Known about the structure:
Helix content: 55-70%
Distance between the termini: 27 Å
Strand order of the largest sheet: 2-1-3-4
Structural class: mainly alpha
Order of helices and strands: HHHEHEHEHEHHHHHHHHH
Amino acid sequence: MSHLANIYRLGVKELWSLWRDPVMLVLIVYGFTFMIYVAGSAMPETLSKVPVSIVDEDGSQLSVRIISALHPPQFKPPVLVSLSEVDAGLDAGLYTFSIDIPANFQRDVLAGRAPAIQLNVDATRMTQAFTGTAYVQQIIQGEVNAFIQRYRSEKALPVDLVLRARFNPNLTQAWFGSVMEIMNMVTMLSIILAGAALIREREHGTIEHLLVMPVTPGEIMLGKIWAMGLVVLLASAFSLQFVVQGLLGVPIEGSVVLFVVLTGLYLFSTTSLGIFLATIARSMPQFGLLMMLVLLPMLMLSGGVTPRESMPMLARNFMEVVPSTHFVAASQAILYRGAGVDVIWPQALALTLIGLVFFFASMTHFRKSISQMV
């Protein structure tokens, strides 16, 4: 009981230290509110309100049909400009696409010729440029074909392919981006808070005060783990309830309680990892550099950004020993597909085993670093 009391009081001390650190408090609030909202509301893979300018040198019925086909919400209403205004508009960033319909375009199409339409693209807007170029080409080609045939038709295929999107029928970007950003914030902030708690004490000289007290290195480490883990756990639950479900209106299929329990299990690993990195680093800048080496693979290769099935086999096998891989897989199963314990227990077991390995490795290195300070 005395050990538990020491761990509790040391954790309370960490909470008070965090409360007096305004930079960390702002980072927590910013990460679990604004960043979640941005990830959910931004639509990097879809076109939305793209500015377009049109140079209509033909003034025909066909050119009017092409102009009217570029309509919201994918595009803003096209702006008719002169040929001399095209370069200036693209240079100023007023338009992403500028379409030049040449003179006698409709006459040449009806005569069976192959007239060319010039499409100028502002390639500095990379996502809109890559996605929108093919989209504009399809729109123009569809309008020209419909004009020639006098009706719209689709070529009959020998096979009828019926597509059904499960768990996100409308393929809404916010449903995926916001939830995955919570997982990323849990990973990043848990490592930052746990590691910064140790480095802050070392820089302020309070770690020496703890060493002369009747507490063990294990109690010091566990106090930091439960305190920083609790902060991230409460912040993630708040963000899921009020930002994701409330502000963004994203439906959650599974049990939020089960997700919170899984997150707590995952935080046991990441906070231990944060302390391990803090024992290696001697200052906050060194800790930040180490975090870059650890966080980027954890975030990019865990399946939250790119499906693991599309990765090389070496990367997939290596990421099996990283806790973020199992956390992302289990969280997606719970929040998207409504999975229960009977489905996610392999990931939960893997998180437990990896967490224990991380904890004892961190404990060993933490005791070694403490002994060197005595």
